[in-house]
Amino acid sequence: MTAVPLHTRVDVAIRGIRSAAPVARRGGAGPSDDGHLLLGGAGSAVPLDPTSPYEVADGRLLLDGVDTGVDVAPVSRPLFYDLLTSDGVPYEKLARLHGKDVLATTVVQTCVRYAESQRCRFCAIEAPIATGATTRVKSPAQLAEVAEAAVRLDGVRQMVMTTGTSAARDRGARHLARCVRAVKQAVPHLPVQVQCEPPADLDVLQELKDAGADAIGIHVESLDDAVRARWMPGKSTVPLTEYDAAWREAVRVFGWNRVSTYLLVGLGEDPDELVAGAARLAAMGVYPFVVPFRPLAGTLAAGEAAPDPALVADVTARVAEALRAEGMRAADQRAGCAACGACSALSAAGA
Ligand code: SF4
């Protein structure tokens, strides 16, 4: 398998591929909305775009018809998608395959911040409820069933559980803890990452750990308050000091490099400040997972300009350097987006 050059990985992440993919999703939590492919053997979440200059022919990635030297293979549709829970819900509506071997679910598909004036402009968490692609709330028992089958039938190696934010002080973390406990009872060796906003009551982080979570993502998306106010009007009411306190407590509870955060590139922040902030996070044991912003259909940001690939490549390369300097490896997260890597170009930058 060929290594994917950083500039190609970034360009594909932004401009997409003219291709179909058996494993894909439309809408949902956070900034991702893609087909899942293997690029140079690595699981990669890539926009499927009929106008892209990239296409696939005979298992190779072509740019304007010219072979880039990068191998491409589709991720096959997993067998667990065709099963139903004992209460009659298709597994496919409860959890999805991400990358090549990650099981991902949104345990509560609604968000207290989803009013149009409050919503994160890059997010479409509630959209799949309207299309019937998923259910509002996943029960612990349903997720345990799906996880067991996904491991047994499709070789899933880790699980990511995210949640929309609730109005309660735990911000949805207690339902995550119940889901983790049930999954760990069914498949004790499956590493699980949970993702939530900083809980007002930080003791809930210990509850998540005690339930069996191996890692946690507390996603800030930007460290620039002006950018936060513009892109995340509701979420930016949680001050960065609360994120800082939650990250520190999470590192104490889960351990160094078992905590991560998303940083989106292309929201208008100063690139040097973004890189410096990522380096500060790495130094405190929090993995800064840098991902290019994409103006997805179904979000409030649809139609806005995608970031310049040169900017994304530059920031990604510099954050990868900061991660190497701290000895912070994505695989050591054990579970979660950093361990998966499909939505970022960090692995192509040597992180
Ligand atoms: S990086 Fe996270 S959101 Fe992206 S495919 Fe992997 S698990 Fe899913």
In short:
The protein has helices spanning 6-15, 127-130, 140-154, 173-186, 203-211, 225-231, 240-254, 271-283, 309-325, 337-340; strands at residues 35-39, 42-46, 54-57, 60-63, 66-74, 96-98, 102-106, 158-162, 192-195, 215-217, 259-265, 286-292. With 351 residues, it is α/β, with parallel strands linked by helices.
Give a verbal description of the structure:
GO terms for molecular function: 4 iron, 4 sulfur cluster binding; 7,8-didemethyl-8-hydroxy-5-deazariboflavin synthase activity; metal ion binding. Pfam families: Radical_SAM. It comes from Motilibacter rhizosphaerae. This is Radical SAM protein (TIGR04043 family). Keywords: 4Fe-4S, Iron, Iron-sulfur, Metal-binding, S-adenosyl-L-methionine. The protein has helices spanning about 5-15, 125-130, 140-155, 175-185, 205-210, 225-230, 240-255, 270-285, 310-325, 335-340, and strands spanning about 35-40, 40-45, 55, 60-65, 65-75, 95-100, 100-105, 160, 190-195, 215, 260-265, 285-290. It is an alpha/beta fold. It has one domain: TIM Barrel. The strands form two sheets. It has a seven-stranded mixed β-sheet with strand order 6-7-8-9-10-11-12. A five-stranded antiparallel β-sheet has the order 2-1-5-4-3, covered by helices on one side. Helix 1 packs across helix 9 (about 310-325). It is globular. It starts with 5 loop residues before the first helix and ends in an 11-residue tail after the last helix. The mean pLDDT is about 95.
Offer a few descriptive terms.
10 helices, globular, single chain, seven-stranded mixed beta sheet, binds iron/sulfur cluster, five-stranded antiparallel beta sheet, 17% strand, alpha/beta, 351 residues, TIM Barrel
